[in-house]
Design a protein that fits this description.
202 residues, alpha/beta, eight-stranded parallel β-barrel, 32% helix, globular
Length: 202
């Protein structure tokens, strides 16, 4: 299974150092997700990262950064929205409706399906599907190696995603809650948990 780490939706002071450390430890796929942010801040974060890691980064919004920094691809948080005019390269999509999953897969290299579980990052955001719906989607072949489980993903529910046939998992809150941006100065907890996530998907 593939492990995708998604950034926190907001910027914070130690972010570039933690991301660089995660890449140093073997992170293969980072999704740069800063909804509604200024492209200036996104560029600044990219400029603080070693350029050998750009090919492992996928950008949400500000799609021009893909070519400017040689990023892995772009991710569109919509089933139907078209890529920018003339765009060539990998396109991922987010889908939150099982009835649209086939369409989403047709128009993307891979699809994030969510929320599978209650959100960790956003209080009160519940799962979009129940287990019987997911099992039925799996049985019908809608879920395959090009579909990644997203939303409330933790090291503990990776096996469930694997059993349903997902090709990868997208982790956000379960990782970032290991670092308190107000009090912590070292990244030991976050790095240890990243290793746990890597073992879970292997």
């Amino acid at each position: 299974m593939k492990l995708v780490i998604m950034t926190k939706p907001t910027f914070f002071v130690e972010e570039d150092k933690i991301l660089a450390a995660l890449f140093d430890e073997g992170l293969e796929s980072l999704h740069l997700y800063k909804p509604g942010s200024s492209p200036l801040y996104v560029e600044r974060l990219l400029s603080l990262l070693p350029d050998e890691y750009y090919s492992k980064i996928t950008v949400h919004e500000h799609y021009y950064l893909k070519n400017e920094y040689g990023l892995s691809g772009i991710h569109i948080d919509d089933v139907y929205a078209r890529p920018p005019e003339g765009y060539r390269g990998r396109v991922g999509r987010t889908c939150r409706d099982l009835s649209l999953l086939k369409e989403a897969r047709r128009n993307a290299s891979y699809v994030f399906l969510g929320n599978l579980f209650d959100s960790i990052e956003i209080e009160g955001k519940k799962a979009d599907f129940n287990m019987s719906e997911l099992e039925e989607a799996s049985r019908r072949g809608l879920i395959n190696r090009h579909v990644y489980a997203m939303g409330g993903m933790t090291a503990d529910n990776v096996r469930m995603a694997r059993n349903l046939g997902f090709g990868g998992v997208v982790v956000c809150g379960d990782l970032w809650r290991r670092f308190d941006i107000h009090t912590q100065t070292d990244f030991k907890d976050i790095m240890a948990h990243f290793e746990r996530l890597r073992r879970a998907v292997d």
